[in-house]
Amino acid sequence: PIWHQGRLAARIVHGAKTRVDTSYRVQNERYGTNLSALLYIATQVEPTFRREDTRHLVDATALRVLTSSVLMQVGGSLMWNASNSDFYDFRTSEASLSAFWSHGSGRWLRGEVRRSWLDYGAREFSEAFGGPTFVRQDSAWQGVLTGAWRVSDRVALTGSADILRNRTNDTREEIDFLNYTQAIYRVGVSAGY
């Protein structure tokens, strides 16, 4: 694909403890005619069709220093994709809250909670795959906790937990795999010499 991008960004600083960052990006991407046979069936476009997408991305984050050992951040983002084929039109949005705590050197904990939404356009699935024509919407919750605890000058324990729960409003059996919960846990030891 061939793509172009433009970006505007701004930062607001309030004293030494608060910072707000915002940005807007626009991307234009053009694709070749090498779609797979399945995509030609799903999108119902001609084999000579050249897909072109324009994406708009807006995000903002606010960081606040609460104490010498605690930081908090809230964020939000929006992205919408406008294509010359309705099949590829979609919007995403996300909200997040995170906190960071440290206790001396090499001892810290970070937690983050995210909520995201994905809305597709009214894709014409009825002829190609069966089922009604509607706006498919997916939503997800994610919680992530990571940390490290130094137990000596050279050894630290590390760990993380990442839990993601995704749901879709598409009730077709072949799409049910999008309703899932995933959990990943890690425990480790790091050592320096």
Question: What does this entry look like structurally?
Answer:
This protein is mainly β and 193 residues long. Helices cover 6% and strands 65% of the residues. It has helices at 37-43, 125-128; strands spanning 2-14, 18-30, 52-65, 70-83, 90-102, 107-122, 135-150, 155-168, 180-191. The radius of gyration is 22 Å and the shape is extended. The chain starts with a strand and ends with a strand. The model has no long low-confidence stretch (mean pLDDT 86).
Topology readout:
Blueprint: E1 2-14, E2 18-30, H1 37-43, E3 52-65, E4 70-83, E5 90-102, E6 107-122, H2 125-128, E7 135-150, E8 155-168, E9 180-191
Antiparallel strand pairs: 1-2, 2-3, 3-4, 4-5, 5-6, 6-7, 7-8, 8-9
* Termini separation: 47 Å
Q: Order of strands across the widest beta sheet?
A: 1-2-3-4-5-6-7-8-9
Largest sheet: 9 strands, antiparallel
Q: Provide a count of the helices.
A: 2
What are the low-pLDDT stretches, counting only 5+ consecutive residues below 50? none
Give the overall average pLDDT: 86
Describe the structure in brief.
Helix content is 6%, strand content 65%.
Keywords for this entry:
mainly beta; 2 helices; single chain; nine-stranded antiparallel β-sheet; 193 residues
